[in-house]
Amino acid sequence: MVSEQPVTATLLVDCCDRTGLVAALSSFVFQHGGNILDADQHTESTSGEFFMRLVWDLADFSLGRDEIRAEIEKFGDRFDLKWELTFSDHIPRVVVFATKASHCLYDLLLCQQIGDLGGKIVAVVSNHDVLADVCKHFDVPFTTIPVDRDDKVRAESEQLALLQSLSADLVVLARYMQIVSAGFVERWPNRIINIHHSFLPAFAGARPYHQAKERGVKIIGATAHYVTAELDQGPIIEQNVRRVTHRDAVEDLMRAGRDLEREVLTRAVRLHLQRRVLVAGNRTIVFG
Questions:
Q1: CA-to-CA distance for 45 and 82, rounded, in angstroms?
Q2: Which homologous superfamily does the CATH classification assign to the domain defined by 8-87?
Q3: Which of 24, 122, 234, 272 holds its CA 20 to 30 A away from the CA of 240?
Q4: pLDDT band, very low/low/confident/very high, at 268 (cuts 50, 70, 90)
């Protein structure tokens, strides 16, 4: 008989490094009957910034959730912390945006099907209907919202209304071939994840793999990052690369690129949903 996973609290902390903080947080958990399951921390030697991820079991914890938040708020005032507190029994709700390419969407849906995503894909949104059958196969709602290049405001208004109605926690751009506006991004700070090839800023625009072949590249890759108002410049969550040679045709490069894109995007989404990513400025601290 498989035992149920314990309900846990996860605390992410960002502040200036100072003596006594780790001891104070650990003592807080211990004094209220908690059992620390995972603790990871990092200090930047140049800036003195301190980052921490602390996870503890709530089974015998003496404080309710509102009381925990109130106590963490006191730590925030005392140590000048930026912090985020989440609980494992809240299943994050994910909405995936896609266009016509299916490889990234398939990988996310398969990951969910085997119970390894860490959240629930509650809808797929597309500006075409090409992927409707894929979503039907996985029993995930599919919505088509056409995007008129001359009236993108209308499409984004529908998308935002849908996200609100679904109580979405995260938006994933799984090869969604549209640029979202700065206004859209402002509504979802650090909650939109995008994937693209890692040639950028080189080989921007159309046919990047053809451009890469002509230049004789030796490495191709993929990058998953949070979306910001500045195109493809958001904090990087995950990357990977693969070596290629002159023997690889453009089709080989594209195939390898698709493999990297789906692997990197799914890993980035899992890391976010597991609350392992802490954004600090325009970079991320990713706890393994």
A1: 19
A2: ACT domain (3.30.70.260)
A3: 122
A4: very high
pLDDT tens per residue, range 132-141: 999 999 999 9
**Whole-Å CA distances, 168 to 89, 128, 197, 233, 263:** 16, 21, 26, 24, 23
**DSSP letters along the chain, please?**
-PPPPPPEEEEEEEEE--TTHHHHHHHHHHHTT-EEEEEEEEE-TTT-EEEEEEEEE-TT-SS-HHHHHHHHHHHHHHHT-EEEEEETTS--EEEEEE-S--HHHHHHHHHHHTT-SSSEEEEEEESSSTTHHHHHHTT--EEE----TT-HHHHHHHHHHHHHHTT-SEEEESS--SPPPHHHHHHSTT-EEEEEETTTTTT-SS-HHHHHHHHT-SEEEEEEEE--SSTT-SPEEEEEEEE--TT--HHHHHHHHHHHHHHHHHHHHHHHHTT-EEEETTEEEE--
The full set of domain ranges for the chain reads: 8-87, 93-286
Determine what percent of the chain is predicted with pLDDT higher than 90: 88
Residues forming the active site: 232
Answer whether residue 205 shows pLDDT above 90: no
Q: Are strands 120-126 and 142-144 parallel, antiparallel or unpaired?
A: parallel
Q: Which CATH class is domain 93-286?
A: alpha beta
95-to-1, 42, 71, 189 alpha-carbon distances in Å: 33, 31, 33, 15
pTM: 0.94
